[in-house]
Amino acid sequence: MPTLQCHAGTGDLPVHRLDATAELSGAAPGDAPRLTARFVLEAQLAAFVLPPRGVPRRADGLWQHSCFELFVRLRGAAAYAEVNVAPSAEWAAYRFTARRTGMRPIDAAWQAAIASTVSASSLALDFSLPLAALLDAPPPQAVLEFGFAAVLESRHGRLSYWALAHPDPARPDFHHPGSFVHAIRYRAADR
What distance in Å separates the CA atoms of residue 95 and residue 14, rounded to the nearest whole number? Predict the structure, then answer.
């Protein structure tokens, strides 16, 4: 699993490790592919504000508190999608036509499947949704590029920003094109 790094400007918090991964799957050939993502946080969880698990529902502004984020685009494309999922099972998803441009919510009709496991020192968050909810139909063979990110809120109200890459050393920016550093090959014929 790729490991996320804390942005240097957001401090040293009691996180031992934060990993994320994604995969495409379908139940049988011909099924529409689903994107499944997993985040695993190993930390002194008592040091963070993690909302308790609730009923999955759409909610905006999740990035203002502890949440996990996934960004996906076709290799080199300007357009991309963003998914935010909080430990509470609240979620939001958006499409952008370019970097921070043309934002529109993705239809809430797809219900994200969200599962989490929490202990005193770890939190695992899994979610799955149809790839078609995020991107228009990719060509028969394509490479999908991902950016994994997280915002963690400390008990003192301080936010730390985590990502696979932080191309802007001055400030965290999960939308930066240089943040899409994890790739998965998509083959429609396999689906």
Answer: 33
